[in-house]
Amino acid sequence: MKLLAMIVVTVLAMYAAQTSLLTYLDYNGVSANLMLLLTVSTAFLRGHYFGVAMGFCTGLLQDLTTGDFFGCATFAYMTAGLIFGKFSERVVKEQFLIPVISAPIAAAIYFFITTGFIFMIGYPIDILNTTDKVLIPLIFYQVIFSLPVHKIVYEFDKKIAEYM
Amino acid sequence: MEQKYKQKKPTSTKKIIAVIAVFVMIFFSIFLAARSKVEFPFFSKTAMTVLSPFQNFFSWTGSQITFLKRNLAEMRYLYKQNKQLREEVELLRAQNLTASEYASENQRLRALLGYKQVATQFDLVAAGVIGRESVTWSSVILINRGTLDGVANNMAVITEMGLVGHVLEAGANTSKVQLILDPRSSVGTLVQRADSRVAGIVEGDMNNPTHPRMVNIPKDADVQVEDAVVTSGFGGVYPKGIVVGKIKEIHNDEGGLLKYGVIETSVNFEKLEDVAVIVKSREAPPEPLPPILQTPGTETDPEETAERMRKAQEQLQQAQEQVQQQQQEQLQQAQEQFQQLEEDTP
After folding, report:
1. Which of B83-92, B226-235, B296-305 has the lowest mean pLDDT?
2. CA Rg value for chain B
3. From A56, A64, A75, residue closest to B43, measured CB to CB
4. Which of B15, B16, B26 to mutate to test the interface with A (most CBs of A within 10 A)?
5. Rounded mean pLDDT of A78-103?
6. Core vs surface per residue A71-95: b (16+ CB within 10 A) or e
7. How many CB atoms lie within 10 A of CB A40?
8. Across the interface, which of A21, A82, A117 has its CB nearest the CB of B61?
């Protein structure tokens, strides 16, 4: 119970940091997406079910608080959790380079899913321009923050493993 | 126990169905939410309430970091600006100094030019003092004009204030000038006052290097303190009429027959920077006559009067010539008559 509370508080703190502290380091309004990194790392360490579950929680948190289109972030994070969770069996848990390499891919998945939804909803979107202005800075931030986030998730994963 | 755990654990198919169901629900909820048909105000508010302490904390931390970053940037900017301003101040000080120097030089040269325009009897070559001989008993300066500029030995050197000395040795580009303060220098002078005009020689005094003496003044000569002393033109080196200074004190000479005056030079030799060499001097043109005051109402045109006078003079000259001619003719006739009488007389 205590561990669950710690995980919840950590997720909330990370989300709060993403929406407040990291905005001071933004580039053209784009900053790091810690919730996506959290989902991907969880998926790598705990498999696709946990990945989807984490994606659901973090996505819902984002959609309920700051999300522009309800469900977009949830769907994107769940998809990312599912895809990267599928690779979890083939990845060694101590391999820290994998989350760093997968961070740009996860960012691209998140970006294309959200822009795809926005397009489907009926908003005109210049995909090339948006890619240049949003995706590239986002990838840059994700690569930088992927390792620290993965470290945190890894520590929690160890504690969960001990607990179980 | 293991069996119990297996019973509680949902099967893989059920998990997949659940995941797919969630995906489908989320997928449709996106479109429904976009049309404002699905809203979760309660959950949204709850999530925001739970998040708010964290966000407040991180927001405060972020603002502090930004404040610090801004302060640091400002400090860096101020430091840079301060450095630039210091450099600018140094540059402006240097420029100010140069400008002051130029202003001072300009003032001196203007004064010298003014004198040059007034003293039409002299052809002057302006020169700057570039050195001073550092021997205590001599007063010699070095100027930046030489034979290439028309300067030659024994030419008088002056400023707009008065006499400086004479060229001792003219080089190609520079010349040595012996000041009137030098004990070896002697200048023929006169007291300028019209009813005095006493002549004397101004020479440097080794005991009083800043004040030369006017010597060889007869004891009963009319010389007073504050009398202006000018060059007499005797000796050929110094042209006549250049101001030397004023008599400051008068003392009796040791012999008892003569006296001498201590001269306060008109030139400040301590601040001597620009001088002029008299390369040629001529007789000063006479002063133009001042216009004669005429009685109001009887004014005449001076030019017309002069013309009439000239004509009258011409007429007078013609009359004189006629009289002379008549006289000569009469004299000639008389001589002829006399000769004829002599011939007639046996």
Report:
1. B296-305
2. 53
3. A64
4. B26
5. 82
6. bbbbbbbbbbbbbbbeebeeeeeee
7. 33
8. A21
Q: pLDDT tens, B218-272?
A: 888 889 999 999 998 888 889 888 999 999 999 988 777 889 999 999 998 888 8
Distance CA B224, CA B249 (A): 8
pLDDT for res B106: 84
Buried b (16+ CB within 10 A) or exposed e, B196-223: eebbbbbbbbeeebebbbbbbbeeebeb
Contact B59 A20 (CB under 8 A): yes
Residue B57 touches partner A, C-beta closer than 8 Å: yes
Q: Per residue in B18-50, is it b (16+ CB within 10 Å) or e — as a string?
A: ebeebbeebeebbbebbeeeeeeeeebeebeeb
State the smallest CA–CA distance between residue A17 and chain B in angstroms.
6
Q: Which of A122-126, B83-87, B285-289, B305-309 has the highest mean pLDDT?
A: B83-87
**Span B68-91, mean pLDDT?**
92
